[in-house]
Structure formats: structure tokens, C-alpha cells
Amino acid sequence: MPRLVIVRHGQSQWNLENRFTGWVDVDLTAQGEAEAVAGGRALAAEGYEFDIVHTSVQVRAIRTAELLLAEMGQSWLPVRRHWRLNERHYGGLTGLDKAETARRHGPGQVHLWRRSYDVPPPPMPEDHPDNPNHDRRYADLPPELLPATECLQDVVERLLPYWYDAIVPDLRAGRRVVVVAHGNSLRALIKHLEAIPDDEIAELNIPTGVPLRYDLDGDLHPTAPRQVVGDAEAAAAAAEAVARQAAV
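-> C-alpha cells emitted (248 positions)
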């Protein structure tokens, strides 16, 4: 029976500062590092072993995977990194303080930009200092694939090709897979796996650094609800903290 584990990266510096991060390459805080280590410890305590790791190309996901695997004694595992696992692109909101943005545009408008399924924020200007078009890791991508902004629907559409082309073959080959990514790229994956309706996915809050397990059938459909690996009460509290951030 295929098994998939997904982990949202630990707290980043801009998470701490309550800023829209998106494709900006922000590192983990000390708390984020501790969350990654705790996730690895929980997996090791339950005897998990993996064969392959998938991450985005953003440092907060990469470092979370490294810390988690080091705690498990599995730092030697092969890792595949891909931009399709990146966080959602927040467009013109990138770098802005979330509370200040809500005061300026109104909480309703900001909530729509953040949590609606198909309404993206304003696009990022070409001359924005954090525009990923100028980042060498995306230099080989066709310009039409580089977003200027994204809603969750856009993230689903750009993530699914990687799911089908890279992760699904690993699972079908019997490899034990862990995916370390971001709040919205994992929200997109969970939406697909669980067939969550468009109007309900906004309520899903994924805790940072907490491993979540899926047991899958031969068609890669979940055979049971996703399971927290480790302390379920602590994971619920962490998800509630994410929900409070989303309410700002």
C-alpha cells in the first residue's frame, strides 16, 4: 500500500513578521528550525524510512527537509527539487505586512485575496525588487510559465503536472515518499487528494513542521483521513495558530 508523507516548512522569518512571502527566498527562524527537527524526531520515533524526497526550490522548504532528514539519520536520501512545489506567488502583496494591508484595503478584500480559490492578488510589477523573473533558478523557464500573481486555483494547475510526472511514478514504483513544501502548494495537493470542494478549501490550515501521512490505494486515493505523525494535540494547536494568522 503506497504511503505519502507531506510536511509544511517550519516558521520562516517573514511568517514571524506576518508578511506576504510567496516566491521570496526567506530562511527559517530558530523556531522554524526547531519545528523541522521535531518533525524528524516524530517520524524517527515511529520508525519511518523514506526512499525519495521532493521539495520546492525555496530555501525554507529545502532547509526543513535537511533538518528533518538529519534528525532521522537519512540525510543521504536523494532529493528532487522543483519550482512547481513553490509557495503561491502573492503578486503585488509580496513583502507587505498583512495587518497593514488589511487596514489599507479592508479585511474583506485581503481575506478574498488570501483565501478565495480563484481570485488572485494584484500582479507584481515588473520592476518589483523581489520579482522572480530576475532569479537565476528560474532562468531556463519559458516566460509564460513565470507567474506575476497566483490564486490557489493557479497553484493547483501548476502543481498537478509535477504530481503526475514525478511523485506518482515514485509511489507506483513502491518508493516511500516525503514531500516538503509550503502552505499553499500542500493545500493544493491536499485538495486534489481529498477532492475538497473549491468553496471549502479555504478552511484548511496546515501546521508548520508537522508530518502528515496518507495511506493510499492502488489508484492513489486516500484509504483513510490524513494522519498526524507525532503529537496530534500540538498539531491542532499549530493549525489554529495558522488560522489566527489567516484571520488578520
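Residues 53 and 105 are 40 Å apart (CA to CA).
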